[in-house]
Every structure is written in structure tokens, then in C-alpha cells.
């Protein structure tokens, strides 16, 4: 849509079947009203009237990352190697802001990092969206969730799915899965459930995909000149992020440092 002043907008209307309740809707409003970063989608306004619950966001012309990954034509046109690296960097910096700088002495854990919640503007800048279940921690960023298994299968960290333990490291795990999707151009659930036939063990699938990924992407025929080392590094960082033990995963500050570093990385 478009406002009278000419600004393009995106409207999110809460559906009864969406699974997002009024508390999550209000949580998203409260958080988004105080957050400002180039890699977070910007909330412009909202409406709560009778049964209508509407959020008004800045327009992201290229839709979600999930949309692009699902469309072979758009993926080939929009996701060259340089753009993929830029999207990964943007998401990492958005998470760094949430975990460290959004509020003094607090950590905001997004809890719902996945391809459909990464929006892409006209210049393919990535913006994190959907803060309905985000959690603010004022001290130790870890606690038990009210229910186990919350989130999307494939992106949810094992400790969240099985034990209900939420922390900043659960966001790091989801980010690692997202990196795998971006670099491979393959949606993780699709790859795991259909190609590898291991729906019971996502981590096995992630390592299987990653072991093949570096060779495939460097021999794909696409122009990767000057990006070879960076692409290998991104795959290595992804492997660090998806380790089963959250204590073995890097914090997001370390992730950002590793992505921009020229030093060699040791594998997990």
C-alpha cells in the first residue's frame, strides 16, 4: 500500500488462524516502537480496533528471503554470491544489535529467526521482522520456555525443542541454519526431509549438506572471483553456530568478528 504522503508501506493483519495471540501482537508493538536499526524492519504505526489488529511496516520491495529461495527464477536473478554474503552480514549485525545494543544492560532474544522473517528491500538489504515472541533478558540470557518445541522445525535449537531452554545461543543456532540456506540456496527442511531422509536429526543433515557445499558452490559455474575465502569462512561459521551444545556455539559478537576476519577458522 501507499500512504497519502507517498510512502510505500506493508500492512500485517493479524489473522485468527495465524497462531499469534493478542499478547504477542502487543509484545511486537512494544518492542518495535523502541528499536531502530538498518537491519530491523521499521514499524511505522499500528491499529487495534474491535477484532482488527494491524501493524504498518516500511515496505520491503523484494518480500521475504523465503519467497526468494522458493522461486528458482528470482533466486537466480537476485542472489549472486556477493548479495548472499551481504544478506548474511546484515542478519548478523541485526542480531548483534538485539543481543547487545538495543537496550542498556539487556539482551533481546528474537526466538523466531527463519527465512520467512527476513525481509529484503529494493537494494536487497536484509531486515529482521516478527518480534511477537521475542524475549527481553535483563541479566543471564537463559530461561525455560513455558512450552517445549516452540518455533519452526529446522530452525529451532535442540535445547529449545526438547528442553524448552531459551537463550541468546538459540538465536545463534537459527542464524547458522539460515546461513546454510542462503549459501546453498536450498531450504533446509526440504533438503533434509527429501534428499537426506533424516527428518529425525536436522543436525546430521546440516553437517551432510555443509560437507558438500564448499566444493559445489566453487564449481557451480557462477562467478565467485574474490569471494572464495569468504564463502568457505561463512560455511565454517555456520557449522560453529549449529553445534548441538549451546555452550560450544559462539556468541553473536564472535560470529560478526569471524565473518569479517581474515584469520583461519578451526572447525567444530
Description:
This protein is of the alpha+beta class and 268 residues long. The chain has two domains: 9-58, Phosphorylase Kinase, domain 1 (2-Layer Sandwich); 65-260, Orthogonal Bundle (Transferase(Phosphotransferase), domain 1). It has ten helices and nine strands. A hairpin with a 5-residue loop joins strand 5 and strand 6. It is globular, with a radius of gyration of 18 Å. Mean pLDDT is 81; it is low at 196-200.
Any idea of the CATH class of the largest domain?
A: Mainly Alpha
- DSSP strand content: 5-15%
Average pLDDT number: 81
User: Helix content range of the residues, please?
Assistant: 40-55%
CATH topology term of the largest domain: Transferase(Phosphotransferase), domain 1
Distance between the termini: 46 Å
As laid out across the biggest beta sheet, the strand order is 1-3-2
Q: List low-confidence stretches.
A: 196-200
Number of helical stretches of at least 4 residues: 10
Encode the helix/strand succession as letters: EHEEHHHEEEEEHEHHHHH
Q: CATH superfamily membership of the largest domain, which one?
A: Transferase(Phosphotransferase) domain 1
Number of domains: 2
User: What is the CATH architecture descriptor of the largest domain?
Assistant: Orthogonal Bundle
Protein name: Protein kinase domain-containing protein
Family: In the N-terminal section; belongs to the leguminous lectin family.
Domain Protein kinase: 1-265
Keywords: ATP-binding, Cell membrane, Glycoprotein, Kinase, Membrane, Nucleotide-binding, Receptor, Serine/threonine-protein kinase, Signal, Transferase, Transmembrane, Transmembrane helix
